[in-house]
Amino acid sequence: MEEFDVENDVQNILMPGETIIYAAQQSRIMPGGSIATPNKLYVTNFRVIFRDPYLLGLKKFVNDYHFKDISNVRMKKGVFTTEIYLNSRFASDEVVLPAVSHSDAQAIVKYIRNGIYGNMPSAEGYDSPNERPYKENKVEKEDLISKLHQLNELKNSGAITEEEFNQLKKKYMDL
Fold first, then answer.
1. How many structural domains is the chain composed of?
2. Band of the pLDDT at 132, cuts 50, 70, 90?
3. In a domain, 121, yes or no
4. CATH of the domain at 75
5. Are residues 112 and 147 in the same domain?
6. Helix (H) or strand (E) run with residue 46 in it
7. How far, in whole angstroms, is CA 6 from its chain's centroid?
8. Backbone dihedral region for residue 122 (phi beyond 0: left; psi -120 to 50: alpha; all else: beta)
9. Which of 73, 165, 155 is nearest to 114 (CA)?
C-alpha cells in the first residue's frame, strides 16, 4: 500500500480502523490548479474526505462524505488534467476537484465507485450506528412473527390450550 502525506487535520478525523487508500491533490502548475493552496481528496475504506485550504492555507474547509451518501462520481477529462465531480444525495452542491492528473483521477473514481457499490476492502467490519437498530428491529420482528405462527400451529394441533397460547403470546409480545 502506498504511503500518503496526510495533514494533521485530516489525520485527526479518521475513525479507528480507517485507513487512507488513495489521495489526490490538485495540480499547482497545470491550468485550473492552485499555486498556493491546492485541494486534496482522500479516499478511505469508509468515506471520501475533501480538504480545501484557503487564505494561503491559514483556514481549511474539510468535509467528508460516506460512500452511502454519494450518489454519483464523474470525470471531465481535459487536455492536460481531469476534473473530478462528486454529487451527494443530501447536499445540493457538487464537490469539484480540478486539475488532477489523468491517472490519479481514474484511480480516485475507481475507488469511489467501489465504495459506493460496497466493494471497498475492510469496509465490512464497519457498522453504521444509524443502520444497526433498524436491522435488529427487522430481525426481531420477523423472529416474533415466526414464533407466533409456531404457537398458532401448536394451538391448532391441540398440543397447547387456548389459555397456554394466550400466556405464551403475551410473553413473546412483552419481549
1. 2
2. very low
3. no
4. 2.30.29.30
5. no
6. none
7. 20
8. left
9. 73
